[in-house]
Amino acid sequence: MPEPAFVVEDYSFWFKLPTGERRLALDSVSFSVEKGSFVLILGESGSGKSTLALNLVGIYPDYFGGFNEGRILVNHRTKGLVNRRELDRGERFQTVNMLFQNPEDQIVTLTVEEEVAFALENYLVRPSDIRPRAARALDQVGLQGFKDRSTLKLSGGEKQRVALAAMLAMEPSVLILDEPTSNLDPAGTEEVLDAIRLVREQVDITLVIVEHEVDRIFHQVDEVLLVDGLAVHGPESPREFLAKRGMRVRDEMGLWIPQASEVSLELARRGVSLSRTHLTGEELIDDLGAAGVREPAAPPPERNVTGPPRLVAAAEPVITVRGVGFSYPTKSDVLSDVDLDIHKGELLAIVGQNGSGKSTLASCLMGLFEPTSGTVTVDGKRTGDYKFADLARRVAYIFQVPEKQFIRKSVYEEMAHGLKALKVPTEELERRVDAVLKTVRLDERKDSSPFLLSHGQKRRLSVACMVISEPEVVILDEPTFGQDWRQAGRLMDFMRRLADDGAAVTFITHDMRLVAEYADRCVAMSDGRIIFEGGPHELFSSPDVLTAAKLKAPPVFDFSKELLGEPTLATTELIDQLEARFGRPGAVVQRS
Amino acid sequence: MDDLELSYKEAKSPFHRMDPFSKTLYVLAVSTTAIFNSSLYVGIGLFVLTFSCAAFFSGVSLRAYWKLGKVVLPFILILTFVFPFFYAGQLSIGSEDIAIRTPIKDLSWAALGFGALLGLRFLAIGFAGLTYAFTTHPSDLVQAFSRRGLNYRLVHAPVLGLVLFPSFLQLGRDISTTQRIRDLGADLHPIARKWASLKHLAFSMLLMGLRRGQTQAMALDIRGYGAHKTRTFLRPIPSSVAGRVFGWTCFVLAVTYLVLQIGNLAGHLQSDLGG
Questions:
Q1: pLDDT in tens, B181-193
Q2: Which of A567, A512, A474 is nearest to A353 (CA)?
Q3: Residue B173: how many CA atoms within 13 Å on its side-chain side?
Q4: Cβ neighbour number for residue B151 with a 10 Å cutoff
């Protein structure tokens, strides 16, 4: 019988509310996780994934308060399976530990080696033993040669890998990773997921991960735990998990699932008989290919990346950027010779790795920064010639972290703020606020403090309070950050409607699925320059651009190319084309 | 990370080889002497000493000093050129002869000496302080004081501040940007508007700072921070005999000078009272 890494027995947890009352978060949960396995925790946004993870480590209820019942047994290296309560704090954290979302919250020293050694020093490990353990941990995450580097000068991905190494140096039996890539750009995400793969190969450890980047991780995990309501289901193998629930996990529960699985489950829903639920594009290609449902791949399109960008014919530009350069006092050429038109009625995606100039460009668009050279005009008038408040009413900016945007005491006041500034008559103001509150499903929370809303509600409010005054341009920074599939879809549908009503919607994102499914046009940036301008199809067909901007096409783009001979941007498009070309592939896909 | 120019700069200089405690003695000696000094000669001496230490023995370019120095220099110049006008016969070198005639008030040599003394005082303290910051690794600082019995968590706090400060500053910038974008307090009088924006900034930064702080405290706890009264240190603390001799010499000289100054002051006081 396999040895468990930890066992949760009839465990319940209640939050302690400020009023002193209890609110149940986990209700009589029981499950166990096998030693050395890799487990994915899934659940819709706000379902309690992090609450479960924090309970497993013991941060709830010991640090953040709350009440619990039941037992969590952990497999201690020398004592075997023991109740977590029987271990002192040091032993407990050296048995089960946790890596947080944001590397910035975890780094507390100035050099990489010190950071990795920090916990060991606190646990009084001798310096002569620390050095080899720190070196080994850095090796395990692929950071050889980084030990003397300043932590302040690392990229996001490197910082998260340092934080991971710092955890590994403690040699825990179980390591919980709470959305370790959510704050990273695609290159950083790739680095961290590669590091996790390396750790799996080299270290005898049980890994539990909460992660949205399911396309990269789903097929690698051994088991899936589902947090649903107050219960935890599983663990189940990924295939079993999907096969049991079908498309319900995405459509009803709002979970992100791999695109290959979306295709597989959607085909199954349409009555196609499949031998298994597919987790990767390769599996799908193999099975459909074996059944003859596959076209030979077309040769890759030729494209001169450095040549003039292709402009999408559209309405008159509302923002025109010409020859814009920008330098900070301490960093030059953050933007160089940027030319761009932003049109009404389109959804424009700006992509590129962190530090490529996306946010600086957005700041120039909304008049926060005056370009060092060149001009930015909004409706034909230079941004510098506008009164800032007037420009802000035309160009709305929505932060990645919604809380940064709130300036009023209640949801209602937050919504009414922009309209009051426009001196909208009270009656009309009330009517418009009520209507938008209903649209974003916040009408029942209109008297609440914006800071007390759930993450999804905060995001909806941050968008609604900026668009209620009907700006001509809406700029969103990482609009779907921390959102589940359903919330992300609703938000982007709302943006689509805004664009259809005549607004120019620009979003800065690292999420290539979002770009593929929603963008009319894309701009890719690298080192302060626009290196690509065109449709998402063209972007993902340009390997040079993807390499230069450190981007990766969504999986469906690649495996649809194998299946159809030409790529599609969305899974629905692929399924429709499969049906159109081959009829219902139903019976032929049955594998013996 | 421009916000962190005050941080440690790696180099191999005599000051880098000094232990933090000796450097602390040096800074204490310079600061107390500069503050209680009333002699222009001593002021010049202190300035020359601290400037020489910074320029020749810290391994850090003067450009790095200037980057920060230029921020405080205007204040030092204001002190140097404005305070002589308020000079009221303070004991200093030079004669009482008129040195400069100005439309406001004639300046005596003593008044000018007083201004120069103020300027030199702050320049000396500035140079010594920056030399300390540039050449002292925060971990060494924690280790040095921890070994002398101080709780390491207490001494580690400035290091945490150094690491976390940029993100806190960025939060403040983002909130200020929000206030501009959303035109907070547009309908208010400029003073009331300033107050409203300060209130909002303080509230938002406190709230978000506390939330973040909570996560950071948790991240520290799960890595054993405070699990024991003391800790081990991976990094060997720098130490040199020359550095210790230099630090203690500065300290002894400063104490001697202070005693003499107090003696002089007591003598003046006695003669004033007795007279």
A1: 888 887 788 888 8
A2: A512
A3: 9
A4: 13
**Six token digits for residue A23:** 């609110």
User: Quick one: average pLDDT of A399-409?
Assistant: 85
Closest residue in A to B67 (Cα) is A330
In whole angstroms, give the CA distance from residue A392 to residue A394.
5
Q: What is the pLDDT of residues A524-575, one digit of tens each?
A: 999 899 999 999 999 999 999 999 988 889 999 988 888 888 889 989 888 8
E strand or H helix at A525: strand A521-526
Question: Looking at the predicted structure, is the pLDDT value of residue B229 above 90?
Answer: no
Question: How far is Cα A504 from Cα A317, in angstroms, rounded to an integer?
Answer: 9
Q: ∠ CA A223-A228-A234 to the nearest 5 degrees? A: 25
**Strand pairing class (A317-328; A67-76):** unpaired
Strands A473-477, A206-210: pairing is unpaired
Interface confidence (ipTM) of the complex: 0.77
Q: CA–CA separation, A561 vs A570, rounded Å?
A: 12
Compute the distance between CA of residue A214 and CA of residue A221 in angstroms, rounded to an integer.
10
Instruction: Give the span between the Cα atoms of A183 and A312, in whole angstroms.
Output: 31
Which of B212, B220, B227 has the CB atom closest to A90's CB atom? B227
Chain B residues inside the 8 Å CB shell of A100:
215, 219
Q: Tell me the two tokens of residue A226.
A: 């589902």
Peptide bond into A61 cis (omega under 30): yes
Do A240 and A247 contact (CB within 8 A), yes or no? no
Helix A259-269 vs helix A555-564: crossing angle, to nearest 10: 60
Annotate A47-78 with b (16+ C-beta within 10 A) or e (fewer).
Answer: bbbbbbbbbbbbbbbbeeebebeeebbbbbee
CA distance A496 to A467: 13
Higher pLDDT, A40 or A293: A40
Q: Which of B163, B184, B230 has its CB closest to that of A108?
A: B163
Residue A45 pLDDT: 75
Contact list in A for residue B163 (CB cut-off 8 A) is: 107-110, 151-152
Q: What are the start-end ranges of the H helices in B89-240?
A: 109-135, 138-147, 152-181, 190-221
Residue of A102, A122, A388 lying closest to B227 (CB–CB): A122
Check B228 against A124: CB less than 8 A apart. yes
Residue B197 confidence (pLDDT): 87
Set of chain A residues whose Cβ sits within 8 Å of the Cβ of B184: 407
Of A107, A388, A421, which is closest to B163 when you measure between CB atoms? A107
Query: Please, what is the average pLDDT of chain A?
Result: 85
- pLDDT, tens digit (0-9, with 9 covering 90-100), for A203-226: 889 999 988 778 888 888 999 999
Q: Rounded to a whole number, what is the distance in Å from the CA of B15 to chain A's nearest CA?
A: 19
Q: How does pLDDT run across B147-163, given as a tens digit for each residue?
A: 888 888 887 777 777 77
Q: Judge if the upstream peptide bond of residue A235 is cis by omega within 30 degrees of 0.
A: yes
Distance CA A556, CA A259 (A): 6
pLDDT at A532: 93
Please give the C-alpha separations between residue B235 and each of A112, A114, B139, B141, in angstroms, as whole numbers.
Answer: 12, 8, 8, 11
Instruction: Kindly list the residues from chain B whose CB atom is less than 8 angstroms away from the CB atom of residue A449.
Output: none
Token pair 């000696």: residue: B29
Closest to A13 (Cα-Cα) out of A1, A25, A31, A29:
A25
Q: How far is CA A328 from the centre of its chain?
A: 29
Alpha-carbon distance B230 to nearest alpha carbon in chain A (angstroms): 8
Three-class DSSP category at A367: coil
Cβ-defined contact of A117 to B234 (cutoff 8 Å): yes
